[in-house]
Amino acid sequence: MAEGERTRTRERDPGAMTPYDIFIRSRLEFLERQNTGQVVVRLEDREYYNTKQGKLLYYINGEIHKNTPLQDWRVFTHSLISHSGKHRHQGGLVIYVIEGTGYSVVDGERVDWEAGDLLLLPIKKGGVEHQHFNSVPGSECHWIAFSYMPFFDYNASEFTQTELSPMYKG
Fold first, then answer.
1. Strand ranges of the sheet holding 94-99, from the earlier edge strand across to the other edge
2. Which CATH number does the domain housing residue 70 bear?
3. 35 within some domain
4. Per-residue confidence at 15, pLDDT binned at 50, 70, 90?
5. Mean pLDDT of all residues in the chain?
6. Which residues contact 75 (CB under 8 A, 6 or more apart)?
7. Is 19 helix (H, G, I), strand (E, B) or coil?
8. Which DSSP helix (H) or strand (E) runs through 79?
9. Longest alpha-carbon distance in the chain
10. 135 lies in a domain?
11. Does residue 133 sit within a domain?
12. For residue 53, what are the domain limits?
C-alpha cells in the first residue's frame, strides 16, 4: 500500500489580509490623510453633476474624494436653476445661501431665504420632506450644504427621492 503524504497548514497565507490587518491599514490611511491630505479644496478641482436632486458639486465626499481629511463630512453646493428635486431624510442638514433668493418647502411649509441666510433642516422622526426653489429662475442661485455622515448613520437616516429635478436626464 502506497503511503500518501499530507501537509497541513496551521496559519493563513502570509499574503492574505486578515480583518485586523485591514483595520490597521485603514487607520494608517486615515492618519496619512490627516497629515498630508488636501487642505484647500478648489472649485476648479471639482465638477458639477446633474443628479436626481439637481446640479450638485461635491467639495468633500468620501466616496469620490479619497485624498481629503474629514472624510465623515459631505460638503456640496447646489446650483438652483429653477428648483431641486424633492426628497426626504431625517434632517440635521445645514445650508448656507451663497447667492440669490429663493425658498424651500419643508414638510409642506414655505420658508423664504436669500444670500447670507442659513437654513437648518430639523431632525424629525420619519424624516423631513423638502424641496428648494429659485425665486428668479435662470438667475444665479447657489447654496452650500454641510452634513456630518456619522449623524446620519447614528439616526439610520434614509434618503427617499419623491420627485426628480428638472435638470436630471436619467
1. 48-50, 55-60, 73-79, 142-148, 94-99, 118-120
2. 2.60.120.10
3. no
4. confident
5. 90
6. 58, 59, 60, 61, 144, 145, 146, 147
7. helix
8. strand 73-79
9. 92
10. yes
11. yes
12. 43-163
Paired sense of beta strands 94-99 and 118-120, if any: antiparallel
Rounded to whole angstroms, the Cα distance separating 90 from 149 reads 12
Task: Report which residue type is found at 128.
Answer: V
Q: All 3 cell numbers of residue 59?
A: 467639495
The three cell numbers locating residue 126: 420619519
pLDDT one-digit tens code per residue, 56-71:
999 999 899 989 988 8
What radius of gyration, in Å, describes the C-alpha atoms of the chain?
Answer: 23
Q: Which helix (H) or strand (E) holds 114?
A: strand 109-114
Q: H helices of the chain, where?
A: 19-36, 149-154
**Model confidence pLDDT, tens digit, residues 120-141:** 999 988 899 999 999 998 899 9
Q: Give how many domains the chain has, as a whole number.
A: 1
H or E element that contains 147: strand 142-148
DSSP string, 87-109: EEE----EEEEEESEEEEEETTE
Candidates 133, 82, 80; CA nearest to 106 is 133
Tell me the three cell numbers of residue 64: 469620490
Which residue in 146, 169, 153, 134 sits closest to 49, CA to CA?
169
Asked whether residue 134 is assigned to any structural domain, the reply reads yes
